[in-house]
From TrEMBL:
Positions annotated as Solcar repeat: 12-105, 115-206
Compartments (UniProt record): Mitochondrion inner membrane
Major site of localization recorded for this protein: mitochondrion
Listed transmembrane segments: 18-38, 117-138, 181-200
Gene name in the database record: Slc25a34
Membrane topology: Multi-pass membrane protein
Key words, A-Z: Membrane, Mitochondrion, Mitochondrion inner membrane, Repeat, Transmembrane, Transmembrane helix, Transport
Family of this protein: Belongs to the mitochondrial carrier (TC 2.A.29) family.
GO cellular component, one term: mitochondrial inner membrane
Protein name from the UniProt record: Solute carrier family 25 member 34
């Protein structure tokens, strides 16, 4: 999606890289939301003696999809998407915009040659930090929305939605509650951002 926006010249306008990245992220979040829902359920699942958080008790990946569909229909597979779309939209917007800007900036300062692998890696490293800082609050919110227990009609028992989740975390846990796990987020997103952007840039040039 982002490449098409670049080819169409949309990223050349002020704020174009941010908007294109956000749209690309939102599309990805919508498409991948059912898989992210199941992933969250399965990762939180453990023995009852050491369980933390709500347990959905799925037996397998396919069993999880089947169980969610049988209980809540197609809509149930997209439960939590309201937290995923802003999460990935913000993450992708920051990731792609800061990558392009940082890469151009280090080349303008003549620290690295334009098109060199070092410039691409530098851009990816800056982008990784920016993504972790901006994305962590949305990551916390989407995880809570995905993993909360639900009523028979699919309504969350703990949070009514995205805004309610923000308000509850902020009031009960403070603003730093929105940054829980930022170290782990960076350990995941840092290498992911650097490597994915590096290979994306090189493959596009090829």
């Amino acid at each position: 999606c982002y490449s098409h926006a670049e080819d169409a010249g949309w990223t050349g306008y002020p704020g174009g890289t941010v908007a294109a990245g956000a749209v690309a992220g939102a599309v990805g979040a919508i498409v991948g939301s059912p898989a992210y829902l199941v992933k969250t359920h399965l990762q939180a699942q453990t023995l009852s003696s050491m369980a933390v958080g709500h347990q959905h008790n799925h037996e397998s990946i396919s069993g999880a999809f089947k169980s969610i569909y049988q209980q809540h229909g197609v809509v149930g597979l997209w439960r939590g998407v309201t937290g995923a779309v802003p999460r990935v939209a913000v993450g992708s917007a920051v990731q792609l915009a800061t990558f392009a800007s940082a890469k151009d900036w280090v080349c303008e300062r003549q620290w690295f040659r334009k098109g060199s692998w070092a410039a691409v890696l530098a851009g990816g490293m800056v982008s990784g930090v920016a993504v972790a800082v901006t994305m962590t609050p949305f990551d916390v919110i989407s995880t809570r929305l995905y993993n909360q227990p639900v009523d028979a009609d699919g309504t969350g028992k703990l949070y009514r939605g995205f805004l309610d989740c923000i308000l509850q975390i902020s009031s009960k846990e403070g603003l730093l509650g929105l940054y829980k796990g930022i170290g782990a987020v960076y350990l995941r997103l840092g290498p992911h951002t650097v490597l994915s952007l590096f290979f994306w840039d090189k493959l596009r040039n090829m």
